[in-house]
Amino acid sequence: ENIAPHLTKGKTLLFSHGYNIHYNLIHLPEFINVIMAAPSGAGSELRKQFKIGKGIPGLIAVHQDYSGDSFDIALSYSKAIGLTRMGVFESTFKEETETDLFGEQIILTGGVPKLIQSSYKVLLESGYSPITAWFVCYYELKTIVDMFHSKGFEFMNNSISDTEEYGGITRGKRIINAEVEAEMKKALKEIQAGEFYREWKNEHENGY
Known about the structure:
- By secondary structure, the chain is of the alpha/beta class.
- The chain has helices at 19-22, 43-51, 70-80, 93-108, 111-125, 130-151, 153-159, 162-175, 178-192, 195-205; strands at 12-15, 33-39, 58-64, 88-90.
- Helices cover 60% and strands 10% of the residues.
- Strands 1-2-3-4 form a 4-stranded mixed sheet, with helices on one face.
């Protein structure tokens, strides 16, 4: 209602996520550019970093290049919002959508929160105090993430005790085992085949 009437010849429609285009939820005319500049993080974090002269990395893609300079437009927009301060990398609407959904479900909003909740539950059910359990299962997570996020897993392992490193390597493989990896692959196939899209669409249409 608000955008389609104004999409005249040669204009550019820019997305920050490829979902609606990849799953054909929006049908667009052939006489416009369709591009993407996708920050690798939340909009609030993008704005926060921009205001202090920094940025976050991101992906850019061209789905439809009518004018012939769509890539340059995507790149210049990325510069304007601070993405190029950290780096932008060329992708596609398909790749950005499928990997973004996978990352959310398996790590960011699925795997990590569930791992925290389950480990906290195990300690409580084993008789440990909620405060102590909260420290080791929730609070300390940020410090370890900051450590390997800054310089990698090898740096993290060199910074922690040998006991921690050995316990993490040996028990970590038991927690994230072949069965877990098989579920990851299954979730990815559901995304690739459009099964998750249809499931979420049905959930939305039936009032959650």
